Amino acid sequence: MNQGKRVGIVGAGNVGATVAYSLAMLGSCHEIILRDNKIDVAKGKALDMSQAAAAVRSHTIVTVAEDMSDLTNCDVVVVTAGSPRLPGMSRDDLLMINANITKEVIQGIAKYSPDAIVIMVSNPLDAMTYVALRESGFERSRVIGMAGILDSSRMASFIQEKLGYGGGQIRASVMGGHGDDMVPLPRYSTVAGVPLADLLTSAEIDEIVTRTRNGGAEIVSHLKTGSAYYAPAKSTTIMVEAILKDTKQIHPCAVYLEGEYGYSDVVSGVPVMLGANGAEKIIEITLDDAEKEMFKNSCNSVKSLIDTLNRNKFFEGEQI
Questions:
Q1: Which residues 6+ apart lie within 8 Å of 96 measured at CB?
Q2: What confidence tens digit (pLDDT) does each residue in 31-49 have?
Q3: CA dist., res. 150 & res. 190, Å (int)
Q4: Residue 250: enclosing H or E segment and its boundaries?
Q5: Catalytic residues
């Protein structure tokens, strides 16, 4: 890896721009390169962020790639590009549209930043991470999906709200795919080291688990137009920093499984050690029977999306 600390962000919408802003304020890297089809909007945001960085005396500069060929020699590339689900669009329609967008973006990254670690944020997250891995030809440690940190932070927020105390001391744990079948793990969730089950009733914990699964939808219901971006962006920033700083910290991330937890040829959220080489180690924790069943359902949901891609001959370049 080169040591230039250069981060590319493909998609300068709410999530991508907020990732860029967070990194610029932290001074996490020397340069952030925004890439978006709306070039003038990206240029305006880049100027604004560079000036904000100057205000806090951060050394980070924010520039714009007018073409993918300008996105060169990045240490990390964050991909948020994708289409939202529009009225009348089926889940499968959205899957195929975003898979094609991801394919095009990843081919550019593989060509111009061949040593980069890719963090996928585009939805459906686990399936897009799978597409990115297949299309890039990168080793699995260098293509990672952002979801587990976000889902865990939502669960932690709901725990704090329910308890009324413990802010900053809550460690919530969520595994599985990023969707309705995610696997919140109350058994592995603590407040200042105290198990959650010692602080809340089973009914209260169940309520938190349900709310965590619907965390994104709850925000959408309030916003009416658009979806969450502060927490997704901050969660992504945490991953980028762990890689750039080679922290070796454990975070839940979506990665390609090769036998871990008994699954292969599928992407799912599991605890991984993040460092300069990406997802350097997959941590296998012990699951009880109920947790194993939930994780199985979650993996099967992702497999169904991969099956749809295969059924449409996506990886053969023969769209139906």
A1: 308, 309, 312, 314, 319
A2: 999 999 999 999 999 999 9
A3: 17
A4: strand 249-258
A5: 178
